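Q: Sequence in, structure out?
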Amino acid sequence: MLRMADPKSEYPVLIQRHVLERLYGNNGRLGFLGEHVAALQRSLWMSLREPVFHPSGRDDGSVLVEYRVGDRKLGYVVARRVSDRVVVLTFLFLTMDSTPEGRELRRQLGLSRDDKTFLGLDTLDKFALTDVRADPHLRTVLEKCGCGHLCECGDNDLLVRQGHADAMKEYLNLDDFPEVADLGSPQPSELRLWGMPVPVGLSSDDAP
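A: Exactly. Output:
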């Protein structure tokens, strides 16, 4: 059941297959978390059970509902009331164009959808499994756009892919964006799914 604008009104929910494919399918946006299917489904249920709404910017009556894993917002699902039920249409990763954070990435950095695809900023793995997560300059900029916490979804002992941070800074011309503060290394508190840490690993074969 999903409680919409009227706190006294609850509606049965129909979740389209596209939502699940975007979460953990072959082209899922949550990358390494995709193997934790049951936990991601439970996170979807919890997010809909206690919804946090945002305008979708569409003219079809749909809204954005925050998708959270534990206490971390990883994106939104698009939901629309249809007759006596609510249909969940798709999942949007946090950085996608139609999200508040995606609009900030465009406003502050001029990033288009193609730019984000090219840089890999449309998937969680770029934030959690590369050296982007430990670069203070990039993290400062991402924090300003509401995406910095994605860099804390891994753990400090993780073997990360190197070279991505420098390539991204060069692409973004980040000399135009002064470093404000050194945020330090990502916090070692790993991403947790219902009280259990998510095991994250990357073999040396995955390095560039």
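Confidence is low (pLDDT under 50) at residues 180-208.
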